From TrEMBL:
Residues 150-502 form the Fanconi anaemia group A protein N-terminal domain. Residues 1200-1397 form the Fanconi anaemia group A protein C-terminal domain. It holds the Pfam family FANCA_arcN. InterPro entries: FANCA (IPR003516), FANCA_arcN (IPR055387), FANCA_helical (IPR055386), Fanconi_A_C (IPR055277), Fanconi_A_N (IPR031729). One of its GO terms (biological process) is regulation of regulatory T cell differentiation. This is FA complementation group A. It comes from Phasianus colchicus (Common pheasant). Residues 625-865 form the Fanconi anaemia group A protein arcN subdomain domain. GO terms for cellular component: Fanconi anaemia nuclear complex. PANTHER family: FANCONI ANEMIA GROUP A PROTEIN. Residues 523-604 form the Fanconi anaemia group A protein helical domain. It comes from the Eukaryota.
């Protein structure tokens, strides 16, 4: 009877009840009649399906309702038949139930459905199980006999039927298995059924759901019985079950591992079935159903079985094939299985289990090494754990000289390194760290050393080329006495390389030896060698030694690979770049054959023409197929990140993306590039450019990151998003060849396009920046070229400093963008790492970002300028940052008020100092500022006077010291100006006038506060000049020329600063007794040591600083009791201590006189001080002397009189009058005329080195020759003027003091320009003339050798000057009297060295003097 029989019986009984009134008097009579009927017409096994419940006959009002249940009928039938057969009813019920199950299971016509029931079978079985449940409740069913009968079935039941018995509590699977007689048959049946079940997983949804439930229930039962911890005890009656469970799981694992081994041979359906079985290893399905210890035991056992499965591969196979066992190349079934197993363990437990297996079992090296790869990719902590394991293995190896531990360590190190520097250190670095120094494991004894090289030698026959190169290029440390051991190994390794057809001669100059991948082709290595050589050349401006050596000793590689890689045709830039300069240097050094160079130039021109024809074809040859694969994998990653339940799959997916990215990037990514991490990356920030193919890849990755961030943030805040984004960025950084393009693209987006980015882009880039800093160890230093006008202190930057330089705050737009970016970055940081300490956060965010917020937020918001209230605890939620209507000014203020952000500001690394604030403020262009002029003044007042001036120095303030604040401002203005392109000499065009005004206010306030100091000698140095001179100390700017240019520009800026400050600042007042004195000592010292060296006239300062000093002097004299006397004292001291100041006044007197007269009259209304009046008189006398023939010079210092006459002559030049005027001079004019000659020589030198200053060379020379003639006519001795104060006469020391250092060094040029005025009688009259001439000739030659301070060739060709001097000396030496040679002994040696011919001439003509007694010293004083 079919399953619908119950319904027929019910309808029959119900229909009869409705048609006529029952003839049975009681229920018992009705039951007996029914039993007789069923016994005649119904089989007992079919009766078990009758489970439809009771029948209630309808009756009329007041008639009694009678019930008849099918359960009671079945029980009665069973009992009646059982009594007839003489067996217990429960046994009979069990047998009949098994019979019915067998019928249900056999009714399927499709053998493919063997593990599952169809819908009809499922319904019939459901009816049967309900009946059996009722029989159990009535104790009319024997489970033990039922289990026994199951195993007697001709065909064992369908697995789903067994599961229904287990699930419905009829009989548990464990009890069923325990009752089996043939355990092996049961294992076979269960495992084959489970395999078939997994194959049905891809069927209809209902089947898939059933398969999942069946597997999970069976897996729980297997673990509960097969891996029950011993301390929990086992069920005594279950003796066979644990073994069967173990055996079945083992068979299934073998099925999986067999499929892994034959992945390429298996059909897709089998692989899908195996993958479905892996769901058994999901920890989540066990939850509380399985004891945690059981789960750990099962997973540990599984991992052990995997690692030791089929250990047929030899170590030699592992050495050769391990590249194929990296994470992305390993069968996905195996990596998925590993990842599921690792969920049950910590990373440390996983590595420890791996270590135990390696120590106690024979292993399958493919599975072991793929396990290592999976661990380092998917477990962030695995890197350090493997480093510790490797160290442990090496220690054990050298303790016991155990080869097994050695090979294990090498294989693990190489395998981990295969996954890239993002997850593990390169093999070359590990090898160097382990064996590269005397303290390494092998350095303890010769035995250990020999053991290491025996091991390495045994590896050689199986090694691949890259590892041999590592061992050759970075050999283990070997003491000198044992070098033969190393050389033997190197010879063996080179032989192996030759066998592999890898010529050691083709190894690159800077070959990356960190990779275990196949050896890079010479073309690819040559390209990398060129890149490295260019970096070295840019830093040193010299051809690298390695390139020169290669051109000589490795000629085949140099000519066949290196030069073609260097001379790849390209479109040459308009201005020569580093590559062009490098090629030019090689060409000039004859390191590039002419024909090859010509071919290169022609190819570059052809490339340019082609580009002009069709620029759109650039990069068209780039393969699109790998990029499409990369896009697909990035899309898959976005799906995983959006589903929190799948986050554990993210590391594996990122590894796949890394592999796809390597395919897109080509050979550069196919090598592990960590060995070149020390090579700097060049980024031209002003004009960043990258290849179109690289830009498309970088854009794809950045877009993916932003999309992933938004997808992850849709469901969770950053702190609950896991390490997905961090791993993604770390993976990108692991591709060394992509980093330059990435940084250049970021430069384009942030530095050039920042203000135009929308909020989503800014948020994504800000988060990307945080994770990029998190991976900063993978990013080399950056050489950033910002152009000449960009204020960047250092060219070589870390990634944090690079970000800081990209975020400028100079205009309203850039300030707004910087606010948005920094707010997003810091907010993401605080949301992402809420539990991190401030110290930990310092490593994750560039301090400059936090500092920029400290600068910007108070600048834009008055509310932020107050002290944050403890009660004001604003909260900036992540959701508000991702809101489309975000107001960043409000968001930044909200962030500012956060208690956690304020705590961050207390960290020293994040504190914005006064100096840093000033540098940021100086960058702002006032005309483009977001603040109005009045708002900016208010901000400056608050920042300087209310915030930084009173703040302690520990937090970047000034400790209330106004002098310190002034010093900081001056220092910042100078630093900032040094970084800018100066519009003209010393003009600070870009410096904020507001800051300069604040400096002037503060200096003035400082001057008003300071009382005259008592005791000038005890007074401390003037703070202003102390600051300026301190900046000039210990400055090193590379080349001597660079130092000279820096110093010159620095002094120009100093001068501009001094002129911009109140004039009285230059003068210090002090008390001596009851008298107030004016002290200019510091100013004079500064002028003599520094300021005079930027004077183009050589003996006079520019008008601006000269007038400023004199105005300050007159103003400062107000503090003196006798103002005129104070001015006179200063000017009197000035004549000897700083004559250049007075000479400057002389030069500028026509402009200076009215200014000083007007000021003095305004201040005092009295006659000018005596010294100033004397200057007026001298100027008037000089004018009168030239025009009307008045007596000259007047009484007074000859130096001043000569200066006035010289300047008057230069200003009122009238041909012929000067000569007549010189003749009219009095007799006592020696000092006057020599001084006049000195000034004319200074102008002659100025005309030669600075022709644009308005001084003509010929005019100056003629004037000097006229003065020289006058001196000769009067018989006045003058040659000692050309010797320095130490060598010459002290009476000329004041003149030398007034000259700049450069003019003094060029006196030899001036001397030999006067040769037309040297007459023969001069040689005989001045017996020390030869000494002076030789001394100056030697100085002239030294100037030429050093190449410094020489005049412009168009004004005075150095070779021509030297030739003139040489010819003069060669003609003069024979004419000199013998006594002239008596004092040249000290000069003879230097002369012979620099000019042998002149030296020989001197030697020849000085011999007679040797017999003379000329021991007397040259009387110079």
């Amino acid at each position: 009877m079919a399953g619908s029989g119950g319904s027929a019986l019910r309808e029959m009984l119900a229909g009869r009840a409705r048609k006529r009134k029952s003839s049975f008097g009681s229920t018992a009579e009705l039951r007996a009649a029914a039993l007789r009927l069923l016994d005649r017409h119904q089989k007992l096994s079919e009766l078990l399906l009758e489970v439809e419940g009771s029948v209630k006959p309808a009756g009329e009002g007041g008639i009694e309702h009678q019930e008849l249940s099918s359960e009671s009928l079945i029980v009665s039938v069973l009992q009646e038949q059982a009594s007839r057969l003489g067996v217990p009813a429960a046994v009979l019920a069990a047998k009949n139930a098994v019979t019915k199950i067998e019928q249900i299971c056999q009714s399927s016509a499709s053998p493919s459905q063997a593990p599952l029931l169809n819908l009809d079978q499922r319904e019939r079985l459901s009816c049967l199980l309900r009946t059996v449940k009722d029989l159990l409740e009535n104790n009319v069913f024997s489970c033990s006999h039922f289990c026994q009968e199951i195993w007697k079935m001709k065909d064992l039941p369908v697995l789903e039927a067994v599961w229904h018995l287990h699930r419905n509590g009829i009989t548990g699977l464990a009890e069923l298995l325990e009752s089996s007689a043939d355990g092996r048959a049961v294992e076979e049946w269960l495992s084959s059924s489970l395999c078939a079940l997994c194959e049905r997983a891809e069927g209809p949804p209902q089947d898939t759901e059933n398969v999942g439930h069946i597997l999970s229930d069976f897996a729980i039962m297997f673990l509960q019985n097969g891996f029950q911890p011993s301390e929990l005890g086992r069920k005594l009656e279950l003796k066979k079950v644990p073994h069967i469970c173990h055996a079945v799981l083992q068979r299934m694992l073998t099925w999986v591992l067999d499929a892994v081994g034959k992945e390429k041979e298996e059909n897709v359906s089998t692989l899908q079935a195996v993958r479905f079985w892996l769901n058994v290893f999901d920890v989540s399905i066990y939850k509380s159903a399985v004891h945690p210890d059981s789960l750990q035991q099962f997973f540990r056992h599984t991992l052990t079985e995997i690692l030791t499965y089929n250990p047929l591969l030899k170590v030699s196979d592992a050495i050769h094939k391990q590249r194929e066992w990296s994470f992305t190349r390993t069968c996905s079934l195996l990596t998925t299985l590993y990842r599921k197993l690792f969920v049950a363990f910590s990373a440390k437990e996983s590595v420890c289990q791996l270590q135990r297996v390696l120590e106690t079992h024979e292993v399958n090296w493919q599975h072991v090494l793929s396990c290592v790869s999976t661990l380092v990719v998917c477990q962030a902590e695995a890197e350090q754990l493997f480093k510790d394991l490797l160290s442990h293995l090496l220690i054990k190896a050298f303790e016991n000289y155990d080869m097994e531990n050695m090979i294990t360590a090498f294989l693990i190190a190489r395998q981990a390194a295969l996954e890239g520097p993002a997850v593990f250190m390169p093999y070359s670095e590990w090898f160097k760290a382990s064996f590269g120094n005397a303290s390494s494991h092998h350095g303890s004894s010769k035995k250990a050393l020999v053991f290491l090289f025996e091991f390495l030698s045994e590896l050689v026959p199986f090694e691949v080329a890259p590892y041999l190169k590592v061992h050759i290029m970075y050999p283990p440390f070997v003491p000198t006495k044992h070098r033969s051991v190393l050389l033997e190994y190197i010879t063996l390794a080179k032989t192996r390389l030759a066998d592999l057809k890898v010529a050691i001669e083709d190894m690159g100059l800077y070959e990356d030896l960190s990779s275990a991948h196949e050896s890079m082709q010479p073309q690819g290595q040559a390209l990398r060698d060129v890149e490295k050589a260019l970096q070295i050349f840019e830093n040193t401006r010299k051809i690298p030694t390695s390139v020169i050596e290669a051109s000589i000793f490795r000629r085949p590689y140099y000519t066949s690979w290196f030069l073609p890689a260097l001379l790849r045709p390209r479109v040459l830039p308009k201005s020569p770049d580093a590559r062009m300069a490098f090629i030019d240097s090689l060409k000039r050094a004859d390191k590039i054959p002419s024909n090859l160079y010509c071919t290169y130039i022609q190819a570059c021109r052809a490339r340019k023409e082609k580009m002009l024809q069709d620029e759109s074809q650039v990069g068209s040859s780039h393969s699109k197929e790998p990029a499409e694969h990369l896009k697909a994998e990035l899309a898959a990653l976005r799906v995983l990140i959006g589903d929190q339940a799948k986050h554990e799959d993210v590391p594996a997916q990122i590894a796949v993306i890394s592999d796809r990215l390597s395919s897109v990037l080509g050979h550069n990514s196919d090598e592990n590039e960590a060995a070149t991490l020390n090579s700097r990356i060049q980024v031209n920030v002003s004009e960043p450019s990258l290849e179109p193919c690289h830009q498309s890849v970088v854009d794809l990755l950045l877009t993916s990151f932003c999309q992933n961030l938004i997808a992850a943030s849709y469901f969770n805040p950053p702190d609950r998003q896991g390490p997905c984004l961090s791993l993604f960025v770390k993976m990108i950084c692991g591709h060394r060849s992509l980093i330059p393009a990435l940084l250049r693209r970021l430069c384009q987006l942030i530095y050039h396009q920042g203000p135009s980015l929308n909020d989503a882009h800014i948020l994504g880039l800000a988060a990307f920046m945080i994770h990029l800093c998190e991976s900063r160890s993978l990013i080399p230093e950056i050489e950033a070229d910002f152009g000449i006008s960009q204020p960047v202190a250092e060219k070589v930057l870390s990634i944090s400093e690079f970000w800081s330089c990209l975020l400028v705050c100079s205009t309203e737009e850039s300030l707004s963008f910087c606010t948005r970016f920094c707010t997003a970055a810091v907010s993401y940081l605080l949301c992402k790492f809420p539990s991190f300490s401030c110290d930990a956060l310092c490593a994750l965010v560039p301090p400059s970002l936090v500092k920029k917020l400290q600068y910007i937020v108070p600048r834009l918001s008055l509310e932020a300028r107050g002290i944050p209230s403890k009660e004001d605890k604003a909260d900036l939620g992540w959701s508000s940052l991702t809101c489309p209507s975000l107001n960043y000014r409000r968001a930044s203020l909200c962030l500012w008020k956060q208690a956690r952000f304020q705590e961050l500001l207390k960290e020293k690394a994040f504190q914005l100092s006064f100096r840093e604030w000033l540098l940021l403020e100086l960058e702002v262009h006032p005309e483009k500022d977001v603040l109005s002029a009045s708002e900016r003044q208010d901000f400056h007042y608050w920042a300087i006077y209310q915030w930084y001036l009173p703040a302690p120095s520990a937090s970047g303030g000034c400790d209330g010291d106004l002098e310190k604040a002034c010093g900081t401002i001056i220092d910042c203005i100078l630093d900032f100006s040094q970084r800018l392109e100066l519009g003209s000499c010393g003009q600070l065009k870009s410096v904020s006038s507001d800051i300069l005004c604040k400096l002037q206010e503060m200096v003035l306030e400082l001057g008003c506060r300071r009382r005259p100091l008592s005791g000038c000698l005890a007074a401390k140095r003037h703070f202003l000049f102390e600051i300026l001179q301190e900046r000039l100390k210990d400055r090193h700017h590379g080349s001597a020329l660079g130092e000279q240019l820096w110093r010159q520009q620095e002094l120009l800026l100093h001068r501009r600063i001094l002129v911009g400050l109140p004039a009285s600042t230059l003068i210090v007042t002090c008390r001596k007794g009851k008298k107030t004195l004016l002290d200019c000592e510091d100013f004079f010292h500064y002028v003599n040591s520094e300021l005079k060296n930027i004077c183009s006239r050589g003996y006079a300062l520019p008008y601006g600083i000269t007038a400023h000093f004199f105005r300050g002097l007159l103003n400062a004299s107000l503090d003196c009791e006798e103002s005129a006397e104070g001015v006179n004292d200063v000017l009197t001291v000035c004549q000897t201590k700083c004559p250049i100041v007075l000479l400057s006044a002389v030069l500028w007197w026509p402009r200076l006189e009215p200014v000083l007269c007007s000021q003095w009259k305004r201040l005092f209304g009295a006659p000018l001080p005596e010294e100033l009046e004397r200057l007026r008189e001298c100027q008037s006398s000089a004018m009168g002397f030239l025009s009307s023939g008045r007596v000259f010079p007047p009484s007074g210092p000859p130096l001043i009189s000569a200066a006035f006459l010289h300047c008057t002559v230069q200003q009122h030049s009238s041909r012929g009058r000067e000569r007549n005027a010189l003749k009219r001079l009095g007799t006592d004019t020696e000092q006057f005329l020599v001084s006049l000659l000195f000034f004319s020589l200074m102008d002659l030198i100025s005309a030669k080195i600075a022709p644009k200053e308005g001084v003509d060379v010929q005019t100056s020379l003629e004037w000097a020759l006229e003065i020289l003639q006058c001196l000769e006519e009067r018989g006045i001795s003058w040659p000692l003027l050309f010797l320095s104060g130490e060598e010459g006469s002290r009476k000329y020391s004041v003149l030398h003091c007034a000259a700049s250092d450069r003019h003094s060094r060029l006196l030899p040029v001036a001397f030999y320009s006067l040769t037309p005025g040297f007459h023969r009688k001069l040689l005989t009259r001045e017996h020390f003339f030869l000494y002076v001439a030789l001394n100056l000739y030697i100085q002239l030659l030294q100037l030429f050798v050093e190449g410094k301070d020489l005049p412009q060739p168009e004004q005075a060709d150095p070779l021509e000057v030297i030739s003139t001097a040489r010819q003069f000396l060669l003609g003069a030496i024979p004419c000199c009297p013998a006594k002239s040679f008596g004092n040249i002994g000290l000069l003879l040696e230097a002369c012979e060295k620099l000019d042998p011919e002149v030296g020989a001439t001197l030697q020849h003509f000085s011999r007679p003097a040797a017999s003379m007694e000329v021991d007397e010293e040259l009387l110079l004083f």
